[in-house]
Amino acid sequence: MVSGLVMEIGNGMQTRFWEDNWIQGGVLKGSYPRLYSISSQQGLLIGDCGFWDGLDWIWNFQWRRELFQWELELVNQLHERLRPVRLSSGREDSVVWKFDNKGVFSTRSVIQAIQAETLSAEITSYSFTSSVWKGFVPPRIELFGWFVLVDRVNTKERLGKIGVNILGDSLCVMCTKELESAEHLFLRCEVAWQVWCKWLRSLGREWVIPGTIREMFESWHGLHNREQGQQMWMIVFFAVIWNIWLERNARIFKNTRASLEVIHTKTVMSYTEWRGDDSGGGC
């Protein structure tokens, strides 16, 4: 996360030219190790590596010896990389947080950055990935479902693991009995399981509680070979986990508490909306 801190350049008098992370693409001494090794300006500030010509900043690099032709090519590449840089003589350099549009550090931006670091690589690495991205529900609901299945939704347990404790205790707010992990919140919590059971009964199914939420998803996906049957079960799955999450957040952040019947009714409403018909599943 330290890599999220970068320098925003003003007059260049607080930032080292070669050694600090201030320009897109990374630290210059790492990008141009040959030039760095023969530079006479190692350790100097940006503002000491050039001069003002009226309103224009002119780079002025100094070397320990004459450069070979291929080294001159590297210098040309360096100048090209520096072309977008605009110094400002009336403004000091400042440290900004690159994971926020305004450059401001926040817990939310840290969490989003951590998720982004692994999301692109992981999103295609699980066997069930293609089963999630079917277009049965809105894309943001699919993405949320994927986060649940790979244990990347920000439960109290996950926030605690990355050193963020903004929600007080770590107990599940739905039952106040167990640690709020993804497996517990969406599957093993007595409130969540009662919602699942209401749907199972309404669909004429009896089931032993699965070992994990992922096992549940995969077994639900395999219940029907026909696309229409799969669609029904998948929409139920997303409707339940999404509304459990909404209720969890309402209890934490709004101090409101819906009954089991109300939670179930909301899952039915989501199911009906996403299914686009009046089937009404569990009503």
Number of domains: 2
Helix content: 40-55%
- Derived from helix and strand composition plus strand pairing, the structural class reads mainly alpha
Low-confidence stretches: 278-283
**Per the principal axes of the C-alpha atoms, what is the gross shape?**
elongated
Described by its quaternary structure, the protein is: single chain
Rounded mean pLDDT is 83
Biggest β-sheet description:
2 strands, antiparallel
Strand order of the largest sheet: 1-4
Number of helices in the DSSP assignment: 12
What is the β-strand count? 4
Radius of gyration: 27 Å
Element-by-element helix/strand order: EHHEEHEHHHHHHHHH
Q: For the terminal residues, how far apart are their CA atoms?
A: 48 Å
Q: Beta-strand percentage?
A: 5-15%
Architecture overview:
By secondary structure, this protein is mainly alpha-helical. It has two domains: 2-97, no CATH class; 122-275, no CATH class. Helices cover 47% and strands 6% of the residues. The chain contains twelve helices and four strands, in the order βααββαβααααααααα. The protein has helices at residues 28-31, 33-37, 69-82, 107-122, 129-132, 139-149, 156-161, 182-188, 190-202, 213-221, 227-254, 260-275, and strands at residues 5-8, 50-53, 56-59, 94-97. The strands form two sheets. The chain has a two-stranded antiparallel ribbon with strand order 1-4. α8 (182-188) crosses α9 and α9 packs across α12 (260-275). Mean pLDDT is 83; it is low at 278-283. InterPro entries: RVT-Znf. Residues 105-196 form the Reverse transcriptase zinc-binding domain. The chain crosses the membrane at residues 230-246.
